[in-house]
Design brief:
Layout (H helix, E strand, L loop, with lengths): L1 E6 L4 E10 L1 H14 L8 E12 L4 H13 L4 E5 L9 H8 L5 E5 L2 H9 L1
Parallel strand pairs: 2-3, 3-4, 4-5
Antiparallel strand pairs: 1-2
Helix pairs in contact: 1-2
């Protein structure tokens, strides 16, 4: 399961992944994000919350890569990830090296509270 939303005032895109995410859900998420970010201005921030994630279908990795490429093309400025269990990173840290340039700052937190604090600083 996933949810996506934008907060135009704070220039923030939020993605929450939870439960068992199928490849089809990843595809749908990529499509929704493409539509939601159509008018986003460069330098926006991304909050990716994996707090409730149990598993992701590995056959959907290309959709995760497509989402990362979308954010890179839209010139994301900061990515804040919530990954409570490092074993559930799903390869995001490694993929970041291939899909984001060195100008994109990526921060990872173990809980949502710390991630939100970082975004408010």
């Amino acid at each position: 399961m996933f949810s996506v939303e934008t907060d135009d005032i704070n220039r923030l895109v939020k993605i929450s992944w939870s439960e068992n995410v199928s490849a089809d859900e990843m595809r749908t998420c990529a499509e929704e994000l493409r539509a939601l970010t159509a008018d986003v201005k460069p330098g926006f921030r991304l909050l990716s919350d994996l707090t409730g994630l149990k598993s992701m279908d590995p056959t959907g990795a290309s959709y995760i890569a497509a989402i990362m490429d979308l954010f890179a093309a839209k010139q994301v400025g900061l990515i804040v990830r919530v990954i409570p269990d490092p074993r559930k990173d799903i390869g995001l840290n490694i993929l970041s090296y291939f899909h984001y340039d060195s100008h994109v700052r990526v921060e990872t937190y173990q809980n949502l509270r710390d991630a939100l604090q970082s975004l408010s600083d």
